[in-house]
Amino acid sequence: SMGNLISTNDYDYVIVGGGTAGCALAARLSESPENTVLLIERGSNPFGFGVAAHRIDNLGKHTDLCESDGVLKTFETTPQANAAGRTFALRQANVIGGTSAISDGVWSFGTKDDWDDLGRVNDGWAFARVQPGLERAAAATGVKTDVSHVPVAPVTSEFLAAASKLSNCDAVPAFTPDHPIGYGALAHAEADGVRMSSARAYLEHVRSRPNLTIVTNAFAKKIVFERDQRMDETGIWAPRAAGVQYVDTSLGGSIINAVSSERVKHVHANKEVILCAGAIGNAHLLLLSGVGPQSELNAVGVPVVVHLEGVGRNLGDGVQVPLHVARDPDAADKEVKAADGSPAVARPERKRPVAQAAAVINSGFDPSALLDRPDIALRCSRKLRDEQSEITAGSLPPGLIDRSGFTISVVLLRPRARGSLTLRSPVYDEPPSIDLNLLGSSEDVERLKEGLQRAIETLETPPLRAYHKHTIAPEKPISLEDSKRHTLLTEHICRYSAPVMRPFGTCKMGPMSDHNAVVDARLLVHSTLGLRVADQSILTSANSGFSDAVSLAIAERCYEIILEDHPVTKATQDR
User: Fold this and answer.
1) Using an 8 Å Cβ cutoff, are 469 and 326 in contact?
2) Which alpha helices (H) appear in 324-462, and where do they start and end?
3) pLDDT of 333 over the 70 cut
4) In terms of DSSP bridges, do strands 319-327 and 218-231 run parallel, antiparallel, or are they unpaired?
5) Rounded CA gap, 227 and 146, in Å?
6) Mapping DSSP to helix (H, G, I), strand (E, B) and coil, where does residue 424 land?
7) Which of 36, 337, 339, 446 gets the most CB atoms within 10 Å of its CB?
8) Which helix (H) or strand (E) holds 27?
9) Helix, strand or coil, per DSSP, at residue 378
10) What is the DSSP string of 272-283?
11) Parallel/antiparallel/unpaired status of strands 357-361 and 182-185
């Protein structure tokens, strides 16, 4: 049942956030007819979406999406001191399917080390334990990881040929947790060019299940707690998450403190409330509900339910720095080739006939680190990207948007800097204060400098050199022979860096002894009962995949854990 009409306010599981993880978890939990599941999503419904539907389906059009379509919500950061005092507009999904419905669809689970690091202090999260869920997610979305024979565009093809000259960078038919380093085409969650978002892959074909209710235009306002008869593992009485209060926003407008309004709905969770609203949404809702640092909650007048110092802390995001390059007008396009250099097979039925490509490398910044563990990705776009682009995030100088050129983005996969999310107000629709602390670690800057030098190296390497007239950003080319290059590179990073817009970490997983931990290894919020978090907000550090695949892996692992805690006996419904 879609829309805002619900026949009951009583469910076994209430899932807040119909994003990448939320859609998958709703589909999995409703497989058993024993479970009643409510999925509430702040954004809109893409099944019969209207004017923007073709842009959601078409991966090649993801940069056209904007707030006027109703599928994006923008949060502004505080001025970032280490990035020339700039503020950034963090574009977050506001639609069923979440980021998987608006991103470029690149598919990567990260490396085995990413998961093993997470599992080192959190039992049950090492790669071997997560791998079955990774495989289920890949099967659900139909992803084909080996894309070596998929056509890549001119310039992109030359970029790959240049990347082959980089040290310790070999061709890979597929970027996998076992083979994370090299150069090649990137896998996407798509079928014949049509995006396979989490909503389409997991939810669309099962949304008529009688035990699954999906409510859109529902802004979660507060988690409702009640004292429970049971005690948690510490032997102390703990508040139980009994349900959620949300606001029906389908009529538009804003309701401030409208407790008595008919548009404020209350739903009860018999078993659990599960937060899948992303690193910003989850932390914000916990704080509004009285779960967080006591001093912060007191300062804005929110009654404290549980003092948890880590809520909103440990906020991280990847960092990207572009090299914008003016294209030589005399350089004619070569024939389209596959990523492995073989002749491309024409596929006119594809809405997106070419693949994106990358070189994923170890910067060599830390000689003692494992060289088979990547920390930098170089991604080539065959066009200059405008301010709506997920790749360059507004770094293109004004007036040059339509100019002929291409962009190589240097992406930091393992940022060390951490920021924070804090409450500005106890009002639910007042955005929180978001400080990414971008470039707050000198190590991040040094790794990006190494990556930029590799990017410049590829620009100067045939056959890419034939396409390269001069750089637009930086305005003056940086030579690798220049004695001042480190200063120039640092200035370029400070001026043009931007977040990847894949925030993580605000509900960090870890033991109670870690003062920044919010959830335990079972994804249960510390010192509460019946409340879990299941998306990339639980990550302790960045997963180098930086994709929706990571969120799906977390959702699949959460489903396994819930089945252990709440076994079902009835036969599984259609999948």
Assistant:
1) yes
2) 442-459
3) no
4) unpaired
5) 52
6) coil
7) 339
8) helix 20-29
9) strand
10) EEEE-SHHHHHH
11) antiparallel
